Amino acid sequence: MNAAWIDSSVAAGLLLAAASAMAAADAPVQRIGALEAARLTLEQGGTFQARVADLMLQWRYLLDVARGEFRPKAAVTFASQRVTTSATATAPNSTISNRGGLAVNWKMPSGLTLTAQLDGDRQRQSALGYTGGRGVTIALALPLLRGSGHEINGASLRSTELALEAARVTFRQAAADAVHQTLVLYFDRRMAQLQAEVARESLQSSTRVDELTRTLIDVGRNAAVARLQSRADVAQAEIAVAQSTNAERQALRALLNAIGLEPPDEGTIIATPDSPDEALPPLTLDEAQAVAQALQTDAAVLSARLSLEDARLRLRVAEDNLRLPLQLDVSRNLSRTSPDRMGRGSTTVGLSTSIELDRSELRHARSSAEVALRRVEIELRDAERNARAAAIDAVRQQQFAAQQFALTQTNIEVARQRHDAELDRFRLGRTSALELSVAQQAMTSSRVQLLQSQFEVLTARLGVFKATGHLLEAVGLQAQVDRWSQGQP
Prior knowledge:
Layout: H1 2-26, E1 29-31, H2 34-44, H3 46-67, E2 73-85, E3 93-107, E4 113-125, E5 129-143, H4 150-153, H5 155-218, H6 226-259, E6 269-271, H7 276-279, H8 287-297, H9 299-320, E7 327-338, E8 342-352, H10 360-427, H11 433-468, H12 471-474, H13 478-485
Parallel strand pairs: 1-6
Antiparallel strand pairs: 2-3, 3-4, 4-5, 5-7, 7-8
Helix pairs in contact: 2-5, 3-5, 5-6, 5-9, 5-11, 8-10, 9-10, 10-11
């Protein structure tokens, strides 16, 4: 009774699998290639698009503010008032006064400041009538010691440019990280698919062995107890199929979430057909080449170099602030009054300075800048050392993964030969169901190990691309990321 029920359940399982295969053949298929998945990660991934918007905002705002220091600044002023005075035994006297002016201030990158001011006023007194005047003043102020030179006056703009360049470096690294993670998820889903196929094939093999065992028992060439082992293998294979199918669904959800796609409609199949070699050919580099390229492209190294330039600039500004603030002032004033229309002019040339009696704060600022420079130099050495180590490790890991993959291929061939031999012996009644089960499990395990070694080869390959800064170029996204990093849509 129990054996009959098991036989019917196995048959029902095979029929259900066949029906599922037919339904899958008719289901709509949405194909997503590895490179397309990488592109969708950057174009539709919410987290990364937020970084794109943030960087564009920095480009529009920060550079505009920094460059505004050397743009002319103009201001218009106007004031109007009425004053009424009275005294004993006299009639009240009323005065209406209107004043206005235009002032333009323009600072040059050299430190020279040009100021132009146009003033005018007009007064009407009840007793005297209209009076007023107008005047023009042009002034030049040139720092001779503190605050002189393009380097010092352009320090704020240069610091902003360095900060934006560091933001671009971080942005490109974030793009590479996102692409790297998506490719890992893509091929993780691909490996989950292949593992599910291995589990289904193992179930089919276990089912065939179970049928063979039943036949051998029926003809008296095997004991009935052998059926227990074959039934247990079928049950174990069914569990493996369920687990691998669930793992495949989870891997698909993780991939779709990374590339910003909604889960597919019921019955739609998401196909990820690309193999690692098709999507990402290996990058052949020796350790010296990998280290040289890593030092040119590593985000931590580039950021540290930018920080070093900024720290040196800040130290130069701090040292400049300890110099004497000596300034040359030149001004020319022209004015005319009415109603007498008398004109006047004057020219002023002079030197001005101010000496701080307490310079401890300036000396502390210079000491802080020196400490910051030394700290950045240490960070740069650490970043370069880490980049060298990461590049060397990536190359060696790729070599090791390739060796492991070759060994795994040999192992699976041996396991397949052993399984076939045990199956032939089992048909002849020369081995037990347990020995055949062990051989079958070994073959299934070796196939899974082969898939895992393929995934490790891919991971190592991605590590080399990432360590040497070629990942975005390899997937054809370098130009788009560069445009985004420059604030362009």
